[in-house]
Amino acid sequence: MQVKTFTKRDIAKIVSRNLNTSIRKSVIYTDEVFNAVRELLCKDDDFIRVEVRNFGVIESKPAKAKPKARNPRTNEEIFVPAHKKTHFKPGKLLKEHLKKPI
Prior knowledge:
CATH class of the largest domain: Few Secondary Structures
Shape: extended
Strand content: 25-35%
CATH architecture of the largest domain: Irregular
Number of strands: 5
């Protein structure tokens, strides 16, 4: 199975085509949007929710510490400290499109 990977530049090309602007300007806009989302998710609050209508929700939540985790390579027992993790939940339109048979 071949995996198709898209980059931020690919998104900027689509934005430039849709807005009928140069790719340089759309790269700046795209960078700023992703920087803003990153800035919001990196705040020190425990629970953060970024909702983009018709696309989905990106959440940042705390994860508990795991005192008895194992390294699968060495089978060594290690301690994993408490940290934050992210989760993406697709919106209604995206979910409906992804449910269609291939």
